[in-house]
Design brief:
123 residues, mainly beta, 0% helix
Amino acid sequence: VQLQASGGGLVQAGGSLRLSCAVSGGTLSNYFTGWFRQAPGKEREFVARISWSGGSTYYADSVKGRFTISRGNAKNTVTVYLQMNSLKPEDTAVYYCAGGKSISTWFRSYDYWGQGTQVTVSS
């Protein structure tokens, strides 16, 4: 299973970005797909997750009400999105998508990882 994250960039505070995570090479059936982020010098932290069916979502308090996780199905590919609105400078980090079976928000409980995509929010 491969996860490919994209969509990062530079945006001013208050702006929006949408990240995408393309899942291919297999399925993550019965897995959660989550977004994590890591700022320089900090541990990787949970941002949001969505169930494989798309019916269940969960957010970190720091992004609740500003970020929305969703998924879409296309031919042979599942894509998980993270719509980020009202961005703040403290949202600056490398963002990663991951797949895991646990409901834990601890990053080590996730089994599959994509490469990161940089999000920089200027003040």
